[in-house]
Design goal:
With 232 residues, this protein is of the alpha/beta class. Helix content is 28%, strand content 25%. Bound molecules: arabinose-5-phosphate (A5P).
């Protein structure tokens, strides 16, 4: 299956939600990259929008595409965020952060009146958790934070199901905000809302990749066509 083609189809459909003059949150990842590219083509043809990127990578791409950019400091309220996801589950709860941009993605999505998720159909799950949950932590006191996370997610001490994300160079992966990421392979997250609250209560946890109540629409592209799911 050509996943890149499916991601691009989902991204192309999302353009239908974009209106002239909108203030847009621009997501991060391979699917969002297709959206930014397609949006750039529209901008070159005269569409006037302003974008707030969710990562340095997206900012650089959007600049290359000629999209007018802003920040949440200058433009604190957005109309719409378009972003990808690692998993899309019931009630359009999401796991995000596979690309490491979860903190900015969540801040930008939270500042938006609406969020549309774009993905290939393989991201749709009945229960979240097959994709390891990214948990962004401050480097200070990492071992203590890790223990607290283990307790909250129900893993044993030093479980190999909780891993510090590393870059290609073997060093810890550092987010745009200067933090580290723990990836928790939980297999099943039956109650994302409750887990999210408990993770947020840990002092060293900056944010987690559970996006609850943020996405209003998911555009899922599969071999049979595109499915648009709206949160009820
Ligand atoms: C980035 O941090 C992530 O939240 C991405 O949005 C997510 O990982 C989806 O990425 P792909 O579109 O590359 O699958």
């Amino acid at each position: 299956m050509d996943f890149e083609a499916l991601k691009r189809q989902a991204a192309a459909r999302a353009l239908e939600w974009v209106r002239p003059g909108m203030r847009l949150g621009l997501g991060t990842g391979s699917t969002a990259r297709h959206f930014v590219d397609l949006l750039g083509q529209k901008v070159k043809n005269g569409l006037d929008v302003i974008g707030v990127p969710t990562s340095e990578a997206t900012r650089q791409q959007a600049e290359r595409c000629g999209i007018r950019l802003s920040t949440l400091d200058e433009t604190p309220a957005l109309d719409l965020t378009i972003d990808g996801a690692d998993e899309v589950g019931p009630d359009l709860c999401l796991i995000k952060g596979g690309g490491g941009a979860l903190l900015r993605e969540k801040i930008v999505a939270s500042a938006s009146s609406s969020m549309v998720v774009i993905a290939d159909e393989s991201k749709w799950v009945a229960v979240l958790g097959r994709f390891p949950l990214p948990i962004e932590i401050v480097p200070f006191g990492m071992a203590a934070t890790r223990r607290a996370v283990e307790d909250v997610v129900g893993l044993s001490r030093n479980s190999d199901r909780l891993t510090l994300r590393r870059g290609k160079d073997g060093h810890p992966f550092v987010t745009d905000g200067g933090h580290f990421i723990l990836d928790a392979a939980l297999e099943r997250i039956p109650d994302p809302r409750s887990l999210g609250v408990r993770l947020t209560s840990i002092a060293g946890v900056v944010e987690h990749g559970l996006f609850i109540g943020l996405a209003k629409v998911a555009i899922l592209a599969g071999p049979e066509g595109i499915r648009v799911v709206e949160r009820s």
